[in-house]
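ok so for the tutorial part 2 we go from a plain amino acid sequence to predicted structure tokens. step 1 is just haveing the sequence, like this:
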Amino acid sequence: EVQLVESGGGLVHPGGSLRLSCAASGLTFSSAFMGWFRQAPGKERELVAHITYTGYPSFNTYYGDSVKGRFTISRDNAKNTLYLQMNNLKPEDTAVYYCAARYYGDTTYKYWGQGAQVTVSS
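step 2 — the prediction. this is what the tokens look like for a chain of 122 residues:
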């Protein structure tokens, strides 16, 4: 059974930083495409960032326009863990953040975590 467990959410002031972690089990983490999504109240879920698996011929990271230059996605295959470093947080970053995984060939993300609340407020 695949499990993705997020941690590191919380309340932070504008301009502050948080690091989310996603511990993965039950999948071949090193071969999985990994992503961070978020959903704010009353809004659709959006892709925040994604990272290909390390051996992918076109290894890359992607960021949504609203987080470019502030967020960094990374992975530690030895620890089966995905990270999202979030700097210079803004109130509009407030949302539930979800970790997701898929394998090469999957058209959509198949595996999802339970979510971590991030609240940016003064």
